[in-house]
From TrEMBL:
Record's protein name: Nucleoside phosphorylase domain-containing protein
Nucleoside phosphorylase domain ranges (all copies): 16-281
SUPFAM superfamilies on file: Purine and uridine phosphorylases
Example GO BP: nucleoside metabolic process
Gene3D superfamilies: Nucleoside phosphorylase domain
GO MF annotation terms: catalytic activity
Coiled-coil features, chain-numbered ranges: none
Amino acid sequence: MLEDPTTMEVPDDDVLYHVGRIGSHFVVMVVCPRMGIEPAATALANMRRSFPNIKHVLVVGIAGGMPCYGPDLQEQIVLGDVVVGVPQQGRGGVTHYEFGAWEGQKELTVKEHTLHPSAALLTAVNNLRSVHMQVAGSKIPKYLEELRRGLNERSRQAYEDPGAEYDHLFEDSYLHTDRGRFCQGLCDAMRAKLRKSRGKRAERKSDQPHIHYGNIGSANAVVRSSAKRNELHAKHNIICLEMEAAGVMSDYQGLVIRGVSDYADSHKNKKWQGYAAATAAAYAKELLLLLPAGGGSSTGSSLPDERNGTRGDGWYVGRDQFHNSGGGFMNFNMGAGYQTNNNTAGNQYNAPFYGHPSAIPQWPKY
């Protein structure tokens, strides 16, 4: 998703930043070594220290989705759709559902403490919603194609839409019995619904995800239970679940954007992670291109001036992580960032932040 990607180091900061552009905005991404609320908060704190004039923050990645929500559960979420955390029914868009007070013997009373997105970000979201209602619709298919065009064949396949025939929504009471095996060849496909049997609201064309706006649940715990997922939806009106946003939104008015890679049930697997991450990143890019870059520098330009070292507005900061639960991590020079609430062995994906500092130290030459 980035133009002109490169890397840079900041003095007194042991993180390697990956930088590039999205339109008139400059993007910086930093690797977080672990997923979870506390590592996310630490990563953002370090970024704000290295880039002290951060203005906007986006948390972009993947999550488990609530299959049905809304009045009479008529709204349908399918794999690859995008969920955007916005204020709903007095909530700011993110609920830290593990934060609160235990009362009685078993009841946790959740205390709302996360912030809502900034006015500028919410304005951009509302503008984009208006654009998507027009005939032209979303530009997500265009950005997904551009993303794949810049990858080799093997990497490109990871970001292709797996197809509706691989989107299985199993009955809540039907559990996956062996975490070491995939559903194929183990689970009874007759106990699952495909999109075509879930109604018109679940149908969509390839590369054209539905965008859902609502409350996102965040905690350190992995949710791999349809019963728990449904309980959280009933209590807090949560429509997707992830593991970083509460660490950011407790202190900063950011925006959370998640691609749905599973249904937060016992059948969750990694097949949809790459594509879901790409759809979330494509939405984030479309949003950034509607967000004004800012007021410019003393030279009248939003670009860095290498002659005198001044930096203008229009900078965006982020982090990106490809994390393996067996240890170690890898970086991607992309605008996408990936997160899954899945703690099994194998690839884990974490999310980037985007910020807006008007001064970046040691901006490298392209």
